[in-house]
Amino acid sequence: MVFLKKHSFKIAVLALCAAMGIYLFITYGMQPKQTLPILKAAPDFQMTDINGEQVSLKSTNGKARIVYFYFANCPDVCPPTTFLLSQVQDKLADSGKLGTKAELISITFDPERDTPEVIRNFASRLDADFNGWHFLRGDEAETNKLAGEFGAPVIKNEDGTFMHMNVITLVDKDGQIRKWINGSDENLTADQIVDELKKLY
Q1: Helix H or strand E encompassing 16
Q2: Cα separation of 137 and 123, whole Å?
């Protein structure tokens, strides 16, 4: 009793500190990792990369993926959006995540003009790392249908040009679409895309 009376203030302070520590741990330390909702299952596909290798959605499972539909002759949104994705690539590479935890997949919906050579030149201007960034091409009609299923519908005009939604699709390692990002958002940054992708590692 004498000990308790003598050290009651110290004991009270220690108890208060312990209670505060428990509160902070429960409030901040035990909060679940932020996640993105599952929107729908990503449609499967199998296409050819610029080296003639077959790449499918299933073959890239196990990694978070960015899927983007484009065409190399695009006069407006595709080049700046692909440049933005090249910045995402660089940030993933700097953190050691490119090709290990995350990959980029760019699919042309103009395979007639976007030959492997044209795509290689298009990608090389952005210093694309083909170990973590797949550039794919397949049947035009099937690709346009696939683009719509990925949330980026495409319409081919009579003059051979295309109208399309400029959408960046985030797919988790299990093949579920988790977010659609407006690639034409002027305020969109590579850091924002990477932060969203991190939730899917």
Answers
A1: helix 8-24
A2: 13
Q: Based on the number of CB atoms within 10 Å of its own CB, is 192 exposed (0-12), middle (13-18) or buried (19 or more)?
A: middle
DSSP-assigned beta bridge partners for residue 99 = none
Q: Which residue's structure tokens are 């980026």? A: 152
pLDDT in tens, 91-129: 999 999 999 999 999 999 999 999 999 999 999 999 999
| Structure letter (DSSP) for residue 28 | I
Asked whether 63 and 131 are in contact (CB, 8 A), the reply is: no
- As beta bridge partners, residue 103 has 65
pLDDT digits (tens, 9 = 90+) for 27-38: 444 445 578 999
At residue 2, the pLDDT reads 56
Provide DSSP, 130-177. TTTEEEEE--HHHHHHHHHHTT--EEE-TTS-EEE--EEEEE-TTSEE
Q: Are the CB atoms for 134 and 104 separated by under 8 Å?
A: yes
Q: How far apart are CA 150 and CA 172, in angstroms?
A: 13
First-last CA distance in the chain: 56
Could you tell me which residues are beta bridge partners of residue 135? 106
176-182 and 167-171 beta bridge pairing? antiparallel
pTM for this one?
Answer: 0.83
Q: Residue-wise over 148-162: b if at least 16 C-beta within 10 A, else e?
A: bebbbebeeeeeeeb
